[in-house]
Design a protein that fits this description.
The chain has about 170 residues and is α+β, with helices and mostly antiparallel strands. About 30% of the residues lie in helices and about 25% in strands.
Length: about 170
């Protein structure tokens, strides 16, 4: 951690290697609860996530994993109103049966906010769900008639990325 570098208590430490701690690597396919338990048992707060090719997929913290189970945890490093502001930027609540959704919103956040559970698939975002089910690149005006009684319409794109989707309840 950065704190390890900034708060070096060993006066003989001269290199980064002198202040490093043992780490742990987890495959990206690791299940949440066993991974959380492993970090907790070892007293480690950070793990490197490894992809299927042996490359680095990213890092995950003990806090990240805990928040996946219990929701956002506010701590001294969170800015005031940060969580609330993130949700406001991603969507507006259903108004007259319509919600405007950020295409980059995860399907999990989408379910939390709208109550609509999208099926799992080879995508993580609402835009990915739209693309997977329409088979098209998602130009403005493209519509997906969801089986659960909702229509999703692309209302804005940024280059080739779906920026905004309008979700409307069918009557």
């Amino acid at each position: 951690h950065v704190r390890d570098l900034l708060d070096v208590r060993d006066p003989n430490a001269k290199t980064v290697a002198d202040v490093t701690r043992e780490g742990i690597s987890l495959p990206g396919t690791s299940k949440l609860l066993p991974s959380l338990e492993l970090l907790r048992k070892r007293g480690i707060h950070l793990a490197v996530v490894i992809d299927e090719y042996g490359g680095t997929d990213g890092i995950v913290t003990l806090e990240d994993m805990t928040e996946e189970l219990v929701g956002d945890i506010r701590d001294e490093y969170d800015l005031p109103g940060e969580t609330e502001q993130n949700n406001v930027n991603k969507t507006t609540a259903f108004v007259n049966g319509v919600a405007k959704i950020d295409g980059g919103m995860t399907i999990e956040d989408f379910a939390d906010i709208t109550g609509i559970e999208l099926e799992d698939g080879p995508y993580e975002t609402v835009a990915g769900y739209f693309l997977a089910h329409t088979g098209s690149m998602g130009s403005v005006g493209a519509v997906l008639h969801d089986a659960d009684g909702y229509d999703m319409t692309v209302t804005a794109v940024d280059g080739r990325r779906i920026a905004t989707i309008e979700v409307r309840r069918r009557a």
